[in-house]
Hints:
Blueprint (H helix, E strand, L loop, with lengths): L10 H4 L4 H13 L4 H20 L3 H5 L2 E8 L10 H11 L7 E12 L2 E12 L6 E14 L2 E11 L12
Amino acid sequence: MTLAAPGHRRLHALHPFPPFVVFAFSFAGCQSLPNSEVANGEVGQASESWASAFNTCNSAKAAALYDSEAVLWGTVSPTLITSSPGVQQYFERVCASNPKPRVVLGEQHIRIYGDTAVNSGTYTFTVFPGGQPIQVAARLSFTYRKNGGQWLIVDHHSSALPSPPQAPPPRS
């Protein structure tokens, strides 16, 4: 028995198994994909772990959340960081001030694509230039890859949120 849709190859030409066996294998493969709610929670937790590492200013812990091939476009970095030592050095520089900066995650929009996930959203940094707290709203994009059961950051882009446009002054 062969199945063929107009303009498509016949299944038996592609697979040595009858179509129902191919279907059974395909269906079984679909069941092994992670539950999207579970994966969403895992990626959300990975983002929370990043915020926790940032807030403790533990640069080694923060760097361990990044894949060895990760790139980082940090909020205050003038260059793209493309190495694990560079990621750790970035967090060491960010945390060199006293008091230490803090971050609070805001809106998060997580999408899962198999072993890849994207989290786009916002966070707010509190920094202390001259000892006075200033809040800086920023936008984030974290791209994760699941490696050995752990969601690791492979791409991190952060930039300060621009001020809303000012309304033009009323005309007289």
